[in-house]
Amino acid sequence: MASLEVSRSPLSSRRELEVRSTRQDKYSVLLPTYNERENLPLIVWLLVKSFSESGINYEIIIIDDGSPDGTKDVAEQLEKIYGSDRILLRPREKKLGLGTAYIHGMKHATGNYIIIMDADLSHHPKFVPEFIRKQKEGNFDIVSGTRYKGNGGVYGWDLKRKIIRLYRKEVLEKLIEKCVSKGYVFQMEMIVRARQLNYTIGEVPISFVDRVYGESKLGGNEIVSFLRGLLTLFATT
Amino acid sequence: MTKLAQWLWGLAILGSTWAALTTGALGLELPLSCQEVLWPLPAYLLVSAGCYALGTVGYRVATFHDCEDAARELQSQIQEARADLARRGLRF
Where does the chain cross the membrane (chain B)? Predict the structure, then answer.
């Protein structure tokens, strides 16, 4: 699989990434979906574009929890377009929760790195190669996106906790095993456990774009949930 | 030990030290200036912590980056994606 094409991308980063990642590195993106019929094709297209432009070996695992809006149909069309070696459909009958979605997805993942992100375009897949680069740079076990450092930021005020992270597969398996909370609190708990287990964590500044900016999303509910989650973690870890 | 337990322990130790010193239970004769500072210390520390927290949050909110470029870029890429996918046979 010698890569002698030099004209595909003017960026030296592409060759840099190819040289540094070994032939065996493969990145599995886990995309749990629920009613993402409109967003799913877009995020898959952007992911494919980012990975192809950087010459990264990847697969995208779509875990749909019986979405009533036909997300699964769209996923099947994407599988036909991009191939079943790149788009893996592993749906479930009904909404069974995020944690179990990740476990289910990981069982079918053939990559040695797992990327977890939301399917609703809250994070742009263009950052994924940066995550990969950062991970190689510091040999990190986990790389997390942050809106608060560097040139990270937001467009639109959505307080929902959106998380995008890259994990070594065995690290994610270990952490999921140890975590006990439910919902998005468990994503927070994963970082707490990771620190307890002395895993190394890197950060990449990312931008979050709220596509439906203009609709008010500031809800006290979200703040309350976050504080409750924080207190729960404080008292249990 | 959970973080909560650690904090409770720490507060218990500091609290009992402060109480012992301010009530003279240890029989120590502290100079008056020390006693004057020691007595309101917990309240003072609490208020300072609150001010620091509010100040930090305020500063961070004020300096939060606004990504207009990212929003524009995303919108144009969405157009591109829809066109390309439609060409490849995706029925939206």
Answer: 8-28, 37-57
Are B25 and B42 found together in one domain? no
Q: Does A85 touch chain B (CB under 8 A)?
A: no
Under 8 Å between Cβ of A84 and A36: no
Q: CA A174 to CA A194: how far, in whole Å?
A: 9
Number of domains observed in the structure of chain B: 2
CB-count exposure of residue A28 (10 Å: 0-12, 13-18, 19+): buried
With a CB cutoff of 8 Å and minimum separation 6, the contacts of A158 are: A122, A208, A210, A217
Contact criterion met (CB < 8 Å) for A152 and B65: yes
B77, B67: one domain: yes
Domains and CATH numbers, chain A: 24-148+156-236 (3.90.550.10)
Region B76-81 average pLDDT? 94
Same domain, B34 and B66: yes
Q: Which pTM value belongs to this model?
A: 0.82
Is the minimum CB–CB distance between B57 and chain A shorter than 8 Å? Answer: no
What is the rounded distance in angstroms from the CA atom of residue A96 to the CA atom of residue A89?
A: 16
A196 to chain B, minimum CA–CA distance in Å? 11
Query: What's CA B70's distance to the chain center, in Å?
Result: 28
**Model confidence pLDDT, tens digit, residues A30-59:** 999 999 999 999 999 999 999 999 999 999
Query: Is pLDDT of A19 > 80?
Result: no
Q: Please answer yes or no on whether B2 and A121 come within 8 Å at the CB atom.
A: no
In this complex, the residue of A81, A234, A235 whose CB is nearest that of residue B88 is: A81
B16 is written with which tokens?
């009992």
Statement to judge: residues B38 and B78 lie in one domain: yes
d(CA A186, CA B64): 26
Q: What per-residue confidence (pLDDT) applies to A3?
A: 45
pLDDT score for A17: 60
Structural domain for B74, as ranges: 30-91
